[in-house]
Design brief:
- This protein is α/β, with parallel strands linked by helices.
- 40% of the residues lie in helices and 20% in strands.
- The strands form two sheets. A five-stranded parallel beta sheet has the order 2-7-1-8-9, covered by helices on one side. Strands 4-3-6-5 form a four-stranded mixed beta sheet.
- Helix 5 packs antiparallel against helix 6.
- The structure holds adenosine-5'-diphosphate (ADP) and guanosine-5'-monophosphate (5GP).
């Protein structure tokens, strides 16, 4: 039944250091149907990050060329670097019935939300990502804990750490614009919450209305 059912698009945001990667990674490993959308970025790779797996690491000129030719679903400047979601990582996969997870900042999330609402208004009876997307925000239990996590991760220069902490409050001010909030205090609970959200999203009737 419902063989042509499209996939679910999980859009996840949260301040740097909230634990997004830590929560997502085991779910991505456990769920064959769930694909991580590999973003493009102009920031340098951290130790252990693999080009094409964690990000497509590209220079500014290449990023600007991709903006020009319309390769991105959204893009934004975050903590002083460019980040963008490739259309090719999302649209065909969802239509083919695979689920996709996006880890993007609040500016990118709100761009996608506006764009999908406008599209839906124009063509209400056609399936679009609007029908598939779920917005999830991951927040740390406190600002102090966020600072400690970012420091102990040991990936940032003093300058980058300051930028990330300075941006965190503004990002957290937008958490109520999301459908679900995960408070990442107890890691096991946060992972279970994300799994529950994915399971519930897979049962949404909005996925079935236009097939
Ligand atoms: P993000 O992807 O949101 O930037 P990370 O997943 O890299 O954040 O997590 C930041 C740091 O916090 C990592 O060192 C990670 O091991 C740690 N961390 C994540 N979740 C928890 C948690 N629930 N309790 C304690 N430390 C955590
Ligand atoms: P990091 O440098 O820690 O990997 O990511 C920094 C921030 O960039 C995070 O808030 C992350 O969600 C965001 N980010 C990662 N990829 C994208 C993307 O494709 N688009 C946007 N807008 N933000 C992204």
């Amino acid at each position: 039944m419902f063989e042509n059912k499209p996939g679910v698009l999980i859009l996840m945001s949260g301040p740097s250091g909230a634990g997004k990667s830590t929560i997502c990674t085991p779910l991505l490993e456990a769920e064959d149907k769930l694909n991580f959308s590999v973003s493009c970025t102009t920031r340098s790779p951290r130790d252990g990050e693999i080009d094409g797996t964690h990000y497509h690491f590209i220079d500014k000129a290449t990023f600007e060329e991709k903006i020009k030719i319309g390769d991105f679903l959204e893009w934004a400047e975050v903590h002083g670097n460019y980040y963008g979601t490739l259309k090719s990582e999302v649209e065909e996969k969802i239509l083919a019935g695979n689920d996709v997870l996006l880890d993007i900042d609040v500016q990118g999330a709100m761009q996608i939300k506006r764009m999908l609402s406008e599209q839906k208004e124009k063509e209400p009876s056609k399936f679009s990502l609007f029908d598939s997307i779920i917005y999830v925000f991951v927040t740390p239990p406190s600002f102090e804990e966020l600072k400690q996590r970012l420091e102990s991760r040991g990936t940032e220069t003093a300058e980058s750490l300051q930028k990330r902490l300075a941006n965190a409050q503004a990002e957290m001010d937008q958490q109520l614009d999301y459908d679900f909030l995960i408070v990442n205090d107890d890691l096991e609970k946060a992972k279970a919450d994300l799994k529950s959200i994915l399971n519930a999203a897979r049962c949404r009737t909005s996925l079935l209305k236009f097939i």
